Amino acid sequence: MKRIFIWINLLLLPATAVRAQEKRYAMVIHGGAGTILQKNMTPEKEAAYKAALTLALQTGYNLLKSGHSSLDAVEAAVKMLEDNPLFNAGKGSVFTHDGRNEMDAAIMNGKTLQAGAVAGVTNIKNPVSAARAVMEKSEHVLLTGPGAEQFAKEAGLEIVDPAYFRTEERWKQLQEALHDDSIKATQAHALNDKLGIRNRDYKFGTVGAVALDHAGNLAAATSTGGMTDKKYGRVGDSPIIGAGTYANNNTVAVSCTGWGEFYIRNVVAYDLSAQMEYKGLGVAAAGQSVIRKVGTLGGDGGLIALDKQGHMAMPFNTEGMYRGAITQDGKIEVYIYK
Fold first, then answer.
1. Cβ atoms 295, 317 nearer than 8 A
2. Measuring CA to CA, which residue among 99, 81, 63, 97 is closest to residue 238?
3. Overall fold of domain 24-168+196-337
């Protein structure tokens, strides 16, 4: 009897542990990764970030709960973040070297593998909605610049004066970046690096969302103002399907944030899905693997991922990442620091 009793408990304990880990999520969002230190954050600003993330999660979840698709949910959540000047997407996007706001966005349907994206747009109030219009109302995947803007206008999306996107904080960040450019020209930045003086993340701030709806369909959306002080029409990973955004019902939905060039070179979003499909990794292990590869090449950032069972991962290799998730029963979790 004693042996049977011990054997039964060994069976029960792992089952209990498994059940404790089986938390299922309906949506995960991010608002950018970088050098986010609590010592540099005021209580008021921290509360504002958490409130914004919470509102975006609740907005998307309410749609899911009422039977809307994961596509509707990720678009709505990202629009909330685009409309909030705290984040580098939509209003509050960073400035290019020439003092413009040029935005990129993408969305993907995990059920059909349809995708849409825009890049380098300057007057579309919600670039993520333009990306969805490209997916659903055109035969293309990626439209750029004036052509994307013309398409968005013809699709009935809200067009605004480019001045709408400007914020004083982002303008000051551009001036700091331009100043750093002049320092680099004199090679003085080497001393600053040694002293640890330079601690600005001009490449971070993307927003994104991934969701799983009641029909079991996954979707992902990403939106960004790109990199402060970017030149020559630079486009990052966000609007590139498989690099910064990807969704596949067979595996996972992914939205990335960080130094886009490294995400493009590593095809991060698709690689995460491929590691799950071909190597049999879970979403957490695959997420850590791709972020580790980005770091090995010298890139920084993070990502959010949600698999077809509702398991999520939010790995990053920076000091912090604005991120949050909501479970299938409506419990909200919001985090900023490591």
1. yes
2. 81
3. Glutamine Phosphoribosylpyrophosphate, subunit 1, domain 1 (3.60.20)
Condensed to tens digits (0 to 9), the pLDDT of residues 151-180 reads 999 999 999 999 999 999 999 999 999 987
Give the model confidence (pLDDT) of 232-282 as tens digits: 999 999 999 999 999 999 999 999 999 999 999 999 999 999 999 999 999
Tell me whether residue 226 is annotated as binding: no
235 labelled binding-site residue: yes
Mention every residue, 6+ apart, whose C-beta is less than 8 A from residue 208: 29, 30, 78, 220, 221, 222, 223, 238, 245, 255, 256, 257, 304
Contact 247, 223 (CB under 8 A): no
Sign of CA dihedral 120, 123, 129, 132: negative
Q: What is the mean pLDDT of residues 278-297?
A: 98
Catalytic entry in 59, 96, 122, 206 = 206
Token pair belonging to 94: 């960073």
Please tell me whether 259 is known to bind a ligand. yes
Q: Where are the domains of the chain?
A: 24-168+196-337
Taking only the tens place, the pLDDT of each residue in 29-62 is 999 998 888 888 999 999 999 999 999 999 999 9
* Euclidean distance between CA atoms 219 and 253, whole angstroms: 6
Q: Any catalytic annotation for residue 206?
A: yes
